[in-house]
Amino acid sequence: MRAASSRFDDKIALITGGTSGMGLATARRLLDEGARVVITGREKTRLDAAVQELAAGDRVLAVAGDAANLADLDALTAAIDDRFGRLDLVFANAGIGAFQQITDVTEAEFYRVVDINFKAAFFTIQKALPLLAEGGAIVINASFALHKGSPGAALYSATKAAVHNLARTLAAELAPKRIRVNSVSPGYTATPAFEAEASEDVRASAVAAVASGRIGTSEEVAAAVAFLASDEGAYINGQDLLIDGGLVNATPAAMI
Ligand SMILES: NC(=O)c1ccc[n+]([C@@H]2O[C@H](COP(=O)([O-])OP(=O)(O)OC[C@H]3O[C@@H](n4cnc5c(N)ncnc54)[C@H](OP(=O)(O)O)[C@@H]3O)[C@@H](O)[C@H]2O)c1
């Protein structure tokens, strides 16, 4: 259903990792506000299910591929060029959580996490740039973890710090094309990834650490991404926006 607001009429948005969680919610949000949307994911069956759920006909293009694979990214941008001829918005969202003590991280695990959380965002943007229209916007999905040290998050946090730094650097580098680049940093968010990884105990301690007293939703992240990507965010550039219920900046009374 189309919302009353149509901030993204005539806009074309690429969302990597659009088959579930925040990527899927952002696709839904941008479609509701008038955009045409390209979603990606590794498996065709999951993409088919997402397309069915979004129910927006030919306003959705789904392209299967690994966001960290440069040949797949070339195929993705060729498909976008073929169908739409340009892009206005990129949400480099595909990523994974990975939590181990530094002593347990193997070299293979290091590259697995760096590939999807950093390399994928870096080359998604590089490959999308020739299609990205002047005045476009890029948002990268980082994490609250870049603002706060937690045990077991050495590798994950470093990849998220890297993508925020990428956003800041590209905000400067792409300014001549009037392309804004920002990142979002979700806190604990109820997505399939979080639900699969978080035990009852982890969830309870997560809620206890959040000043707002609850886990966030994918829709709340989607609303922030839409704001940053829209003209309402026109003067926001090189920023990271925490969407975390106060997790990083506000200590719950019970924890003092
Ligand atoms: N959930 C949280 O609490 C939380 C907090 C802070 C930050 N984040 C970040 O938010 C982003 C989205 O996470 P989420 O929680 O929404 O997870 P999710 O529900 O598991 O969704 C992840 C998406 O990324 C896609 N993906 C994963 N690896 C990929 C690859 N190599 N190539 C292409 N697509 C790939 C998945 O698609 P397929 O599996 O279909 O390929 C899926 O669409 C991630 O960058 C994550 O680090 C999450």
From TrEMBL:
All residue ranges annotated as the Ketoreductase domain in the record: 11-191
Domain of life assignment: Bacteria
Full protein name: NAD(P)-dependent dehydrogenase (Short-subunit alcohol dehydrogenase family)
Signal peptide: none
CDD domains in the cross-refs: SDR_c
Family the UniProt entry places it in: Belongs to the short-chain dehydrogenases/reductases (SDR) family.
PROSITE patterns, per the entry: ADH_SHORT (PS00061)
Record Pfam families: adh_short_C2 (PF13561)
Keywords in alphabetical order: Oxidoreductase
GO molecular function, one term: oxidoreductase activity
